[in-house]
Specification:
The chain is of the alpha+beta class. Helices cover about 20% and strands about 25% of the residues. It folds into three domains: about 250 residues, Orthogonal Bundle (Peroxidase, domain 1), CATH 1.10.520.10; about 110 residues, Immunoglobulin-like; about 100 residues, Carbohydrate binding type-21 domain (Immunoglobulin-like, Sandwich), CATH 2.60.40.2440. Helix 9 crosses helix 11 and helix 11 packs across helix 12. The longest helix has 16 residues. It starts with 5 loop residues before the first helix and ends in a 15-residue tail after the last strand. About 40% of the residues are buried. The structure holds protoporphyrin IX containing FE. Protoporphyrin IX containing FE binds next to helix 3, helix 8 and strand 2. The site of protoporphyrin IX containing FE (HEM) has 24 residues, from helix 3, helix 8 and strand 2.
Length: about 525
């Protein structure tokens, strides 16, 4: 994709900046797969119930998608599980969905829905626990009400399961595969399923989870090899209650052909699961249009912030170089302005980040100038010249998005004259470039609605009746706000297109107006 795209930029970061600098909200769970999937104890300890990341694979890969009906196009991965009414259903027994959603919520933003965050967590759980890379798209839309019930349950017969998977658009072979792919992780817990699993009296498994295979925290084909060799302890295959042996009925439904092929080939198992996992998380209600598969930009600007400081336009920026750990690259940021001029600044190494269990890494460079022992993290531009686009020269190689440049909108920005009037109120001053066709300028109050969705409330800034010049090229538009507890981004409609600042400002950081 072409930068900038607020939604894709943010989805890309959430997907590929997993650990280290700019780590995404789930990074704390990526340490060890055991704890990512199961919480700090291999038994599912109560204290850290909410960390049970198995919920992610299960929530997303099983429960959330099951209500999709490929005929009428309803249901799918739409985060309807966040509603208490769904969590209370018997079919969702024993799952800490409420707690999972608290963790999921940390990744939700104006550009990332609850449903996207669930899908992302599932992808990360799979990839960081030895699984294949799963294509990730964004753009899921959160349901506004609970969905119809319909999660497959172990006591149902084979025909109902085949029908349930067919409703989602999966064939019988795909059903066998998908269940095997899901059941490479985790197991069945006694508490919610006392008719399937007995109390285990195992000090290493204090929560009485009978696992689907011997390597329950790792993605591998042992679920198939153990099944084929007859050594499996899968409680849904060799459970004492044959009525609930749904994996046995499903795995055997084609004479074991599919399971045998998985047992014979870890690679086939991995590639099949990658495809089916992706299809599963991409099962969405009709009308939802997903983005393309998110791939990392090789050179990605980040933290681009323009601030008007009187006669000086301050530009701070960083850039992420994908697929390198080189801390000594020569990185120059180049830019063009409104009057045919150019500028450049040598960026300094900042830090590293990584993704997918260290399979990928990235090096970050940023504007950072030390003058007389004082670090400034911006370059000073002439407001009249402004800036229109950037490009980057990395070890002699130019990245300018195939000649397009990385466009920058300098039509509006925060002015440093913004200040706190008194304890609960503040004045936003927005510097608007003279001559741009800004039909509206507004603050965007980033907040959460009663349905746990991030919403943006626009607060119009009235155009000043008399121009208030801040310098030769910009005038100030001002508005007072009285809620200091939320973040405000700045938005503007320029030539009919809406733009937003990439950061939301907290007014408590503003200086006092009377100072
Ligand atoms: C007919 C279809 C299926 C049935 C009847 C079924 C049944 C179950 C049951 C009873 C559990 C135990 C839950 C608990 O103890 O809280 C479970 C766990 C699990 N299932 Fe399935 N499942 C099915 C399909 C799938 C699919 C398609 C996936 C993913 C692709 C999946 C992924 C998982 C995972 C990851 C767990 C482990 C959760 C944990 O350990 O906390 N299941 N399944």
């Amino acid at each position: 994709y072409t930068w900038p795209s607020p939604q894709l930029d943010e989805l890309e970061s959430a997907r590929f900046d997993q650990k280290g600098l700019h780590a995404n909200a789930f990074s704390g769970f990526l340490g060890s797969c055991d704890s990512f999937i199961f919480g700090p104890n291999t038994g599912r300890s109560n204290a850290a119930d909410w960390i049970r990341m198995a919920r992610f694979s299960e929530t997303s890969l099983r429960i959330m998608t099951w209500r999709h009906n490929s005929k009428d196009g309803t249901g799918g991965l739409d985060a309807s599980i966040r509603f208490a009414e769904e969590q209370a259903r018997a079919e969702n027994a024993g799952n800490g969905f409420a707690n999972t959603m608290i963790v999921v919520g940390t990744q939700v933003s104006r550009y990332i829905s609850n449903a996207d965050a669930i899908a992302l967590a599932a992808v990360m759980a799979i990839e960081n626990c030895g699984g294949p890379e799963v294509a990730f798209r964004g753009g899921r839309i959160d349901a506004t009400e609970p969905n119809a019930p319909g999660v497959p349950e172990p006591e149902q017969d084979l025909d109902s399961h085949i029908a349930a998977f067919a409703r989602q658009g999966f064939t019988k072979t795909e059903m066998i595969s998908l269940v095997a792919c899901g059941h490479t992780f985790g197991g069945v817990q006694h508490d919610p399923f006392p008719d399937i699993v007995n109390v285990l009296n195992d000090t290493a498994d204090t929560e009485d989870v009978a696992h689907f295979d011997s390597t329950f925290a790792t993605f591998d084909n042992n679920v198939a090899t153990e099944y084929i060799s007859g050594t499996t302890q899968n409680p849904l295959v060799v459970g004492f209650n044959d009525t609930t042996n749904s994996d046995k009925r499903i795995f055997g439904s084609d004479g074991n052909t599919t399971m045998l092929s998985f047992a014979n080939s870890p690679a086939l198992f991995a590639s099949t699961c990658a495809d089916l996992f992706a299809r599963m998380i991409d099962t969405v209600p009709n009308g939802v249009v997903l983005t393309d598969v998110i791939t990392p930009l090789p050179v990605k600007p980040s933290d681009v912030v323009l601030t008007m400081n009187g006669d000086v336009l301050e530009l701070s920026a960083s850039v992420r170089l994908w697929n390198t750990t080189d801390t000594t690259s020569s990185v120059t940021m180049l830019w063009k302005d409104h009057i045919g001029g150019t500028g450049n600044d040598t960026l300094a190494f900042w830090d590293l980040s990584s993704a997918t269990g260290g399979k990928y890494s990235a090096a970050w460079y940023r504007v950072a100038t030390v003058t007389n022992a004082v670090l400034t993290d911006f370059v000073s531009l002439d407001p009249a010249a402004g800036i229109t686009s950037m490009s980057f020269l990395v070890d002699g190689q130019l990245d300018d998005q195939n000649g397009l440049g990385f466009a920058i909108q300098d039509g509006f920005m925060l002015s440093k004259t913004s200040c706190q009037i008194e304890f609960l109120s503040a004045r936003f001053d927005v510097a608007v470039r003279n001559g741009v066709n800004a039909t509206r300028v507004y603050l965007e109050q980033i907040t959460t609605d009663t349905l746990q969705r991030v919403v943006v409330v626009e607060i119009d800034i009235p155009p000043p009746s008399q121009p208030v010049a801040i310098n030769s090229a910009y005038s100030l538009w001002s508005v007072n706000v009285t809620n200091p507890n939320v973040g405000y981004a700045i938005g503007a409609e320029i030539d009919g297109i809406k733009y937003s600042t990439t950061i939301a400002y907290g007014v408590t950081a503003f200086p006092s107006c009377s100072a």
